[in-house]
Amino acid sequence: MNTIDTFRYDGAELRRPSGRRRFIDRVVFVLGSLASQIGRMLERRRGRLALLEMTDEQLKDIGISRCDAHREGIRPFWE
């Protein structure tokens, strides 16, 4: 018996996913992308709100004026 004889093809490995499975995979991908996008928007909003709560000394430490922090803090979360 040689090495090639020990590997047999039963057809299971090369089957393509059914149409329903591909649809489900796409839906899961889209929902995951949407959840990631929403998470990024919420994180952006939390960061902007944190800027509004900082003292003048803290803003000076990171090199942002009170006016810049206010301008950034009032921006909508989707921008």
Secondary structure: elements and pairs:
Blueprint: H1 3-6, H2 19-53, H3 56-62, H4 66-73
Tell me what you see in this structure.
The protein is mainly α. It has four helices and no strands. It has helices at residues 3-6, 19-53, 56-62, 66-73. Helix 2 (19-53) runs antiparallel to helix 4. The radius of gyration is 26 Å and the shape is rod-shaped. The N and C termini lie far apart (66 Å).
Q: Estimate the strand proportion.
A: under 5%
Model regions low in confidence, pLDDT < 50 over at least 5 residues: none
Count of runs of 4 or more consecutive helical residues: 4
Largest sheet: none
Number of separate strands: 0
Percent helix, as a range, is 55-70%
Give a quick set of tags describing it:
single chain, 79 residues, mainly alpha, 4 helices, rod-shaped
Task: Describe the structure in brief.
The protein is an all-alpha fold and 79 residues long.
